[in-house]
Backbone:
């Protein structure tokens, strides 16, 4: 019977509203220190309700600051904000996987037996894409400010060519920052299907449920594909640690090199061939 409010950024507000898990979803535009009006509006928002407990799953310096924004008396606060009631004091908290870290965090508040992530609510009609029966998902992008997390586009183009030879149609997905990469691959392999910048979270989940496999860098859509039940091959460089943030599960294969430029096409194809 609790009134559950979720604070998230605008990019995820729609997704969380559709989940049905929350009574209200608030949007945090993450105002900068030089945006006093934005900070004031966030301060007003955080104090527009009287909270019994706040669960800070972000546990960043920014969200820790929000503890100070909330007027006294402070609610129970589960996180790493200085002075909070349920402080996660594990000195190795940054050395454990996100899922374990959040489970430990919630355990401080007596929340146990946390189920695996579920995204059944993410559904869309993918018939609009007119895809063949046999297709795979290719996710060649990632954070634009972290190019070291991306496998070279020419390598993806070679893999796309191999998929086509095997009778599997590659489908490219990504956002605006991946447009140039997807265009490069499409120019090299015109028979692939380029859905860059046209897929929603719901589309990615629905596409993943029918895909033979998903191949991509360490980026958000690969987590969606995995939770949706798709066989996933995720490529990691030393720019991120798979022990801390890789998708979990029996259907996940991790390929890790200090630099992704040293990861050969043959190594990737060897893993993909097992998915066929």
Residues:
């Amino acid at each position: 019977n609790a009134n559950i409010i979720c604070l998230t950024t605008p990019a995820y507000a729609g997704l969380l509203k559709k989940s049905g898990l929350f009574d209200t979803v608030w949007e945090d535009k993450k105002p900068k220190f030089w945006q006093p009006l934005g900070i004031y509006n966030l301060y007003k928002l955080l104090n527009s309700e009287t909270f019994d407990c706040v669960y800070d799953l972000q546990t960043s310096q920014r969200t820790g600051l929000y503890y100070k924004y909330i007027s006294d008396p402070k609610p129970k606060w589960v996180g790493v904000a200085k002075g909070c009631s349920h402080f996660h004091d594990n000195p190795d908290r940054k050395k454990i996987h996100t899922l374990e870290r959040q489970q430990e965090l919630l355990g401080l508040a007596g929340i146990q037996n946390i189920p695996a992530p579920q995204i059944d609510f993410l559904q869309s009609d993918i018939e609009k894409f007119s895809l063949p029966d046999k297709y795979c998902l290719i996710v060649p992008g990632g954070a634009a400010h972290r190019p070291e997390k991306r496998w070279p586009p020419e390598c993806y183009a070679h893999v796309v060519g191999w998929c086509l030879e095997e009778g599997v149609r590659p489908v490219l997905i990504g956002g605006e920052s991946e447009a140039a990469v997807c265009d490069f691959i499409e120019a090299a392999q015109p028979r692939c299907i380029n859905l860059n910048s046209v897929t929603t979270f719901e589309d990615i989940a629905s596409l993943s449920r029918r895909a033979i496999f998903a191949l991509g860098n360490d980026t958000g859509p690969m987590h969606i594909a995995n939770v949706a039940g798709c066989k996933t091959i995720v490529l990691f460089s030393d720019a991120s640690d798979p022990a801390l943030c890789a998708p979990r599960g029996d259907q996940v294969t991790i390929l890790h090199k200090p630099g992704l430029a040293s990861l050969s096409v043959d190594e990737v194809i060897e893993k993909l061939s097992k998915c066929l």
